[in-house]
């Protein structure tokens, strides 16, 4: 999804949120033609399915990479898992150090 998202970015998502045109969403793409399941993907919801079903047409922000509805068709409503609320850029995330201590000894 570059240039919108970059490797290492963290996303805050809301599962079960109503899809909204123009927003990013966590989606399940259909299995490949050979039956291999595809991983979850972040795509932009562009418009409801033009055929009148409850699905959505999704597109990628980078036309050079990945799959979208132009290749796999619309995504059924059940395949829209969550709406992206916030992007936390990788370069701004603090480096956390965890210190493990034992109590009582």
Q: Would you give an account of this structure?
A:
The protein has 105 residues and is mainly beta. It has a single domain (10-90), classed as Umud Fragment, subunit A. Helix content is 4%, strand content 31%. It has one helix and five strands, in the order E-E-E-E-H-E. The protein has one helix spanning 69-72; strands at residues 10-15, 24-28, 40-48, 56-59, 80-88. Strands 1-5-2-3-4 form a five-stranded antiparallel sheet, with no helix packed on it. The longest helix has 4 residues, at 69-72. The termini are far apart. The mean pLDDT is 88.
Keywords for this entry:
105 residues; mainly beta; Umud Fragment, subunit A; 31% strand
Short structural summary:
The protein has 105 residues and is mostly beta strands.
Question: What is the CATH superfamily?
Answer: Umud Fragment, subunit A
Helix content: under 10%
Number of strands: 5
- Rounded mean pLDDT is 88
CATH topology: Umud Fragment, subunit A
Spatial order of strands in the largest sheet: 1-5-2-3-4
Termini distance? Answer: 49 Å
Structural class designation? mainly beta
Shape: elongated
